[in-house]
Write a structure and sequence with these properties.
- It is a single chain.
- With about 220 residues, this protein is of the alpha+beta class.
- It has a domain at about 5-25 and about 75-190: Butyryl-CoA Dehydrogenase, subunit A, domain 3 (Up-down Bundle).
- The protein has helices spanning about 1-25, 75-105, 110-150, 165-224; strands at about 30-35, 45-50, 50-55, 60-65, 160.
- The protein has a 5-stranded antiparallel sheet with strand order 4-3-2-1-5.
- Helix 1 packs antiparallel against helix 2, helix 1 (about 1-25) packs antiparallel against helix 4 and helix 2 (about 75-105) runs antiparallel to helix 3.
- It is elongated and about 60 Å long.
- The two termini are about 55 Å apart.
């Protein structure tokens, strides 16, 4: 019962993290224009993402344009593209492996060790995908904060942390939490199997002892 609850919880949390990872990868709100000092044009907001940059003006619909070249991006955004794509693939693969492991656990009761390995693989993939996702998020956030407090950077070029970064941190936390849940489930299964293996040994030893005791008493009575 507890194992089933852990599996369902891990799958739900991992699914939320997977969907969030795909959403963050496509969102343009990684860098948002900062309204500080002389930059007080609040009716125009600039968003910069991994694939496009957008300009949102008051009473006018948002206009977005895909980057003309990858070389036009800063190094942190260039690396974030590949890392976020890798994190998305890993999270999706972990989700699929987790579903396969759950189906195996519910449909069949034999070969539990192989099923445990499937669930453990899903947990490790979830943790790996969350770690891969944290790298570009923290890198971009560090660059934004460094440029914000750098007096050499023009005020119009300074940016603030966008909504995509906060959503990405939540998604990465969900992926790591899902991986930890699946790993804990495998740990519980290992303990259950070890208890299950030790019980028959104890029972057989006790049976042999009783059997020998019975034989010895029977021999004595025969002798008498």
């Amino acid at each position: 019962m507890v194992g089933g609850v852990l599996q369902i919880t891990g799958l739900l949390v991992g699914g939320i993290g997977t969907v969030g990872t795909f959403a963050v990868t496509g969102m343009p709100q990684w860098r948002v224009s900062a309204f500080i000092e002389n930059n007080i044009i609040v009716f125009e907001t600039i968003w910069e993402g991994l694939w496009m940059h957008c300009i949102r003006q008051a009473n006018i619909r948002m206009q977005c344009k895909v980057y003309d070249s990858v070389l036009a991006l800063s190094p942190d955004l260039q690396a974030s593209r590949g890392l976020m794509c890798a994190g998305s693939v890993l999270s999706f693969l972990a989700f699929v492996v987790a579903i396969i492991g759950m189906k195996c656990m519910w449909c069949a009761q034999r070969n539990r060790q192989a099923k445990g390995y499937v669930i453990l693989t899903a947990g490790l993939l979830f943790i790996l995908s969350g770690a891969v996702e944290l790298i570009p998020l923290c890198w971009v956030a560090n660059t934004i904060i460094s440029d914000f407090y750098n007096p050499m950077v023009n005020t119009a070029q300074k940016r603030e942390l966008g909504e995509a970064l906060y959503l990405g941190w939540v998604a990465a936390f969900c992926l790591i939490a899902a991986g930890a849940i699946f790993c804990c489930f495998c740990r519980c299964c290992e303990k259950t199997r070890s208890y299950g293996y030790s019980a028959p040994t104890h029972y057989s030893t006790r049976s042999q002892h009783l059997h020998r005791k019975t034989e010895s008493s029977y021999s004595i009575s025969q002798y008498v």
